[in-house]
Amino acid sequence: MTSSYDRALTVFSPDGHLFQVEYALEAVRKGTCAVGVRGQDCVVLGVEKKSVLKLQDPRTVRKIVMLDDHICMAFAGLSADARVLVNKARIECQSYRLSVEDPVTVEYITRYIAGVQQKYTQSGGVRPFGISTLIIGFDPHDKTPKLYQTDPSGIYSAWKANAIGRSSKTVREFLEKNHKDDLSKEESIKLTVKSLLEVVQTGAKNIEITIMSAGNIIENLKVDEVDKIVKEIEEEKKEADKKKKPGTGASIQ
Amino acid sequence: MDAYVNAFRTTLPTWFDENGIAGGSFGLEAAEEFAMPAFDVPACNNPVGFLKTITDESSEGYRIKIQHGTTTLAFSFKDGVIVAVDSRATAGGYIASQTVKKVIEINPYLLGTMAGGAADCQYWERDLGRRCRLYELKNKELISVAAASKLLANMVYPYKGMGLSMGTMITGWDKTGPNLFYVDSDGSRLKSNLFSVGSGSTFAYGVLDPGYDYELDVNAAIDLGRRSIYHATYRDAGSGGSVNVYHVKEGGWEFISCDDTSIPDLHICILPFKVYLDQSAPQLASCHKFELSLSIKELLRGRHAKQLILAAWPSLYQIVQGF
């Protein structure tokens, strides 16, 4: 029954589904994981890097991109679709700067990207973008960090912490359990790495972290810095496990 | 008239491409959102040429006479922006009206002035008000004066050379403070502290420039604006009627006064000088409540008020010397 309604994008199924959009979401679920965590004065993006093939130049495979000086984006899904969408967003950022003499707000550019994604769910002869995005940044003259997510259907919303891509459900549940309001910078970074470690088994070399603080300060953590954090997390885990094990000391008499 | 237009008519120009998805609007959303409304231009090969012949006074086919005479001014100072305008509309030598509203209230915190063609200014500034409101609704925050003036400049630029006549000042108080921009139908958009626009602007500058100081207090600034327009109406035939003064403050604009220029009260400027004494000799001001009048020649520089007072009233010198 589903097969007859999933060919064309512009056809609703009898129970109200747009199957092409839902299949696009499936494509997103196959992509590598990306996590965003909003702290008190910074916002952190972490992505799972696919293992670079031997002959491939790792610098040309980037999953975290800048949309403007103050806005950063990570995506999950089809990389080629992401490239097109990022280009459109970058043009929009500059066009807005020209018309309004002010940089875009994070909400504006998210709304634009979501609008483009929605446009492609309501036209003939096209397919939806197969990506979800996490957009982070600060509004001009503002110190509150922002994190937004869009998906192929064109929905967007603001989040305190979110994950997209592979195993995003597990990671999101982990974030729900462990996220607190007003995290410091170190805590946000640690939470991002911890949540990514749920998905990434191979450790620090497959994790990329970007931190954005007020005043357009952007840090991309190097592999050894990420490694250090991973080791810290593993140490803490060992300590926690030791405490949980039945103690060799106290015995109940 | 048809024969005249047909002389220029060949094919309709296409001003906008179809927004096909496959062709891609390529991120021009902001440009579209901030773009001009689709508007009818003469359906001919060269609408600019056609309109120029009709509206340019020096050409043979001159048909549409735009009303130009006016004086408007605006200046920003520490407490906001003062906007002062006259209210006369002329058509050649005929005074069409003495009660024209030349300050257009775009919204409760943005003002625009009208100089040049009345219809052009009113229409475009009302449309600007519509676009500003849409911006507010979409972005949940007030539009900045820079953005509003840019919207207006971009709206009229496509009609450059087609006979629009509009010299307007857009002013308001946004999150960067008081702002003042000059926008005209030639496509200029300038930012400054002080502008005067219209046929009487040179006369207004003559009074405004010597009296202007960023540190003026509100009443002195209002008076300066009012006097400058008055003196422009005194000498310029295209300006007259009454002087309307507005003050743009942090929470929005406020209408101050409407004074008839045929009453020569404004010719002689009387300014309470208590404020200057307060700044230069606070002890003196607290024990003696002075109110001094000085003629306009002596008001040239507010900063030198203390020296001027001392020169004009030597008896004060003894008292003030101690401070």
TrEMBL record, chain A:
UniProt cross-references to Gene3D superfamilies, sorted A to Z: Glutamine Phosphoribosylpyrophosphate, subunit 1, domain 1
Q: Which residues form a coiled coil?
A: none
Q: Where in the cell is it found?
A: Cytoplasm; Nucleus
Which Pfam families does the record associate with it? Answer: Proteasome, Proteasome_A_N
UniProt family annotation:
Belongs to the peptidase T1A family.
**Which InterPro entries is this protein grouped with?**
Ntn_hydrolases_N (IPR029055), Proteasome_alpha (IPR050115), Proteasome_alpha-type (IPR023332), Proteasome_asu_N (IPR000426), Proteasome_sua/b (IPR001353)
Which Gene Ontology terms describe the biological processes this protein takes part in? ubiquitin-dependent protein catabolic process
Span of domain Proteasome alpha-type subunits:
5-27
Quaternary state and interactors: The 26S proteasome consists of a 20S proteasome core and two 19S regulatory subunits.
Q: Under the cellular component aspect of Gene Ontology, which terms does the record hold?
A: cytoplasm; nucleus; proteasome core complex, alpha-subunit complex
Tell me the protein's name.
Answer: Proteasome subunit alpha type
Keywords of the record, alphabetical order, are:
Cytoplasm, Nucleus, Proteasome
TrEMBL record, chain B:
Phylogenetic lineage: Eukaryota, Fungi, Fungi incertae sedis, Mucoromycota, Glomeromycotina
Superkingdom of this protein's organism? Eukaryota
Q: Where is the active site?
A: 70
Q: Which GO terms describe its biological process?
A: proteolysis involved in protein catabolic process
Kindly list the places in or outside the cell where this protein is found, as annotated in its UniProt entry: Nucleus
Name-wise, this protein is proteasome endopeptidase complex
Question: Which GO cellular component terms are attached?
Answer: cytoplasm; nucleus; proteasome core complex, beta-subunit complex
Which of UniProt's keywords are assigned here?
Cytoplasm, Hydrolase, Nucleus, Protease, Proteasome, Threonine protease, Zymogen
What PROSITE patterns does this protein map onto? Answer: PROTEASOME_BETA_1 (PS00854), PROTEASOME_BETA_2 (PS51476)
